[in-house]
Amino acid sequence: MSRSASNSLPTTDLLKTRGLVKEYHSDGVSVEAVRGVDIGVGIGEFVAIMGPSGSGKSTLLHVLGGLERASRGEIWLRGQRVDKLSLAEWAVLRRKHVGFVFQFFNLLSNMTVADNVELPALLAGVTPRQARRRREELLSDLGLSEKAAASPARLSGGEQQRVALARALANEPSLLLADEPTGNLDSSNTRDVLRLLQRTHDRGQAILLVTHDARVASMADRVINLFDGMVADDHPVTRIPRPVSSVLELHGL
Amino acid sequence: MRQPLLAFLAKEPAHGYELKLALEQTFGEAYPSPNIGQIYVTLKRLEQDGLVRSQDVEQTTRPNKKVYELTEAGRDALRTWVDEPSDGPRVRDEFFIKLILAPMAGLADRMELINAQRRHYLGIMRNLAGLSATDTPARLLIEGAILHLQADLDWLERCQEELV
Description:
The complex is a heterodimer of chains A (253) and B (164).
Chain A: E1 13-26, E2 29-37, E3 40-42, E4 46-50, H1 57-64, E5 72-77, E6 80-81, H2 87-97, E7 98-101, H3 113-123, H4 128-141, H5 157-169, E8 175-179, H6 187-202, E9 206-210, H7 214-219, E10 222-227, E11 230-236
Parallel strand pairs in A: 4-9, 4-10, 7-8, 8-9
Antiparallel strand pairs in A: 1-2, 1-3, 1-5, 5-6, 10-11
Chain B: H1 2-11, E1 14-15, H2 16-27, H3 36-48, E2 52-57, E3 65-70, H4 72-83, H5 94-104, H6 110-129, H7 136-163
């Protein structure tokens, strides 16, 4: 998989951008939150985006997920250019191929947890039986089985975050986009989410997520550092061959 | 390893090999398996310093073994160690010195240094995450190391924001 800018159609990349720019206008002033980003995510690849707050990470993810329109540049998904699609067309494509976990969950509060998770699969045309089986599996993986009938409003922040992840995975998307998927979780809930991300990755689904959490980022095949709306670093995580006991040095002993 | 040995001896007299086992059982994989020779050398020094005393115990099928016990001075030394606040884990940081001095010497770009260091921290994190610690002290030590690494990464972001 090549990440360099090339003129050929990007076919080996699941997702690819070229010269992506996102501009916001307010009071006659325009601010570029994303300033010419070229990145790619291969089929089944796990990529983490890190960077200081305000570096454009969430904006980039929203543009890639079709939640906001790019100002300039190109977005290719599965070899198809998507940035020119209508919002409705893109929504159809997304329903089939992309799962999205928002930083603030966006769960439907007038539906149960179970219905929140099943809905995307039903919308994508999966049979109710399959949708239900998938939902039961996901909620069980995330330790939420006994919350299935609850309203999201009655859940803790950490529980809502896990329901949002289950919902994003309900369609078995080829690409999972997630904004700080462990941002509100304590360490035991984080472990559940990490395990599910790992399983998703092992199953060959690609993941592109924004995170500050070093545990999450260290699982990725590659880490992109975004700084000031631009890619400052794009490399695989360093493999350190030395034994772990050298890290766990008890000082003074 | 002086203080841990004193601490085990404060519980009950023991010989060198028992102390090795006690260290292993208490810390699990959190502590690199102690070398028995190092334990004997440390015990000998503690004895010279008057913090422990030893007694030869006869064994029928093996050579005599030395059983060590804590002295009053040893108990005082242990108490002083426990009561003292411990140093923070990061009193010196070699990377910071590099970050400040290397660009001045025309040797490296700060962004590159920060990027390489981030990848290195994430590599360490990956190794830590691969450990499956079942015993509590090892698990807590690993969690501590993970939190420190997280702080190091957050701090790299601050360096990136302020220095680049």
